[in-house]
Amino acid sequence: MDKVSPDCPYPGCFFCVMKEGNPSKRRASILKFFRELPSQDDDGQVLPISGLWNTAMAHPNDPEFIELGIFECMAALIWKGLKNRRWLSHDQNVYIPYYAAHIIGSYTMNMEEFAESAVHAGVIAPLVELLRGRLTWVEQRVAVRALGHLATYTSTFPAVASHGEILELSIQLAISSLEIVYSHFYQYVDRRISYHCDLLTRGMGGVEMESRKAEEWASQLQCWSLQLINCFAFKPEFLPTICKPEFLVKLPGMWGGLVNENSPAGIGLLRTICHHKLGRGPVASCPGIIEALCNIARSSDDWQYMAIDCLLWLIQDPSTCHKVIDKAVPALVDLAEITNLGDHKKLGDTIVNVLQECLQSQGTGRNTISNRERELIEELLDSKQRLKWEKNMPKEDLHIKQAAALVVKLEGNSLFSSGNIAGAASKYSEALSLCPMRSKKERVVLYSNRAQCYLLLQQPLAAISDATHAVCLHNPPNCHAKSLWRRAQAYDMLGLAKESLLDAILFINECSQTNDPDLSLRQNKVPDYAERLVKKQMRAAWLFREAAIKHGGVHGEGDVGDIYGQESDGSEWETASESDMGNDGRVEMGDDDDDDSEWKNEDGRKDKYDKTTLKEDES
Predict the structure, then answer these.
(1) Where are the beta strands (DSSP E) in 142-196?
(2) Which domain holds residue 435?
(3) Eight-state DSSP code of residue 579
């Protein structure tokens, strides 16, 4: 460390070393720096550590610092912070354990050989101490992130698993993470630790930004804990520890939220658990979990396919089929029209095949199904048979069936307009029985219209079923705006805030892109009926809601606005006129619902859809 800038007040300055032009001298100086830094007590140590943090984030695959001992240095600094509280409280050293753990996580997230070097350098033990909560939740967050990366690789997982407490600690952290962040940071603004605020906002924001970032970090703390547990769940010997009812029942409610939607969170872990026979039994026996899986499977969430996989595996397993069949069959029948879901091709065909096998195997042992489930499966199989028959029907006969269905549909529209909602629903059912199976656009409209009738008849489960049929039939799936809105309202009636929120947001996204004059958002204005529902469900599905209720932040329904954030008189979005829809936000029957254009050839115009995504900031 002989090369020092004449203007630099620090002997052996890391930043001056990095400017060294001679490669061999530079490497030797960096090696010496990493070896000596943990034993030094000079002021300003946080500056080179923060520089290393930036480098690790920007160049996580660069091997130079790995070869020169950065992992040994970071492990030693974490130990120093844990054992020497006087040093930790001096100058800005309190930041160092956080940066050190984050650096370890960044350098191990992509490269297995780097992870192996980290394990050999002894990083796991100090990371486990941070995971225990020896410092604060901020350090827990980066510790669980780093351990999650180390557990991902085949060569380094055994070293992580050898610390038996890691799995238990991760489970407890996944359960309690939101409450920890709420009670230790979010709840009392005047008690927030200053270095936590600095790390959250990088000194660029005030209280409001601190609160938003705290919610994001709390979600990451939970999701990264679940990711670490997921690594253990691939090994059958760890499933008994993971599959405790008190933990399993909470998994469907663990989601990344709008701040961290890129993580599969709880449903991702459930899918891994259900993939193994040892995991399916506890899941099938856990009260409420199958119903939650059905709700996720019907939703338009990015992780919908994971819930579908869980239900299919549970039904295919003779030891769990009888426990889940009454709830799983209706949900899977609703989803059987779906073709492709992202990279998952012919998903609907897979669902049909599994249900057909289920029907054929019924009556043997414990797998007897009820008449209701039998009828649902038989109706589904009959519809598939109808589709095969239609392929051989003359076009003239198909046109006659289409025309007959249109006449009945128009009769339903007339009944609806006159206020005879039950009569309209009956007519739409009749039209569905006449409408050719291949006429998907027409069937989408009929299912969507009948869903609206069921909403008005206060039958939300039937409305969800029909709206799900519609969004599955639509091309592309999960993009039929009116059906999404109707399902959002039905979920709201059942108190399913997250599901309602996701559909309402997708409805707004689709409205912003459709050519339908009834639904298009003029000048990018969000209809205020949709805005009201989104705001309501964002409060109800707020990540900290349960913690706030437990810690006195919410005493009743009327207090939710206070803890989530005061609503100003000015709207979050500019609002459009409600002339397109009823004052309750109900989409009126009309235009695309009874326009003959819906009955045109399938080769007609196709709208383009683009789903808005939110990116995770892993700072």
Answers:
(1) none
(2) 393-551
(3) G
Place of tokens 């069949």: 325
Tell me, yes or no, whether 610 lies in a domain.
no
> In b/e form, how buried is each residue of 216-238, taking b as 16+ CB within 10 angstroms?
bbbbbbbbbbbbbbbbbbeeeeb
CA-wise closest residue to 431 among 415, 384, 331: 415
Q: Which two tokens stand for residue 593?
A: 């619902």
Number of structural domains the chain divides into: 3
Helices (H), 37-136: 46-58, 64-67, 70-83, 85-89, 96-108, 112-120, 124-131
What sign does the CA torsion over 393, 394, 400, 405 have?
Answer: positive
309 or 43, higher pLDDT: 309
Task: Return the H-helix or E-strand segment holding 575.
Answer: strand 575-576
Q: Which DSSP symbol is given to 566?
A: P
Model-level pTM?
A: 0.86
Q: Which of 126-130, 464-468, 548-552 has the weakest average pLDDT?
A: 548-552
Predicted pLDDT of residue 364: 54
- The dihedral over CA atoms of 378, 383, 386, 391, expressed in degrees to the nearest 10, equals -140
Q: Which residues contact 364 (CB under 8 A, 6 or more apart)?
A: none
542 and 407, same domain (yes or no) = yes
Q: What is the mean pLDDT of the chain?
A: 86
CB-count burial class (<10 Å; 0-12, 13-18, 19+) for 570: exposed
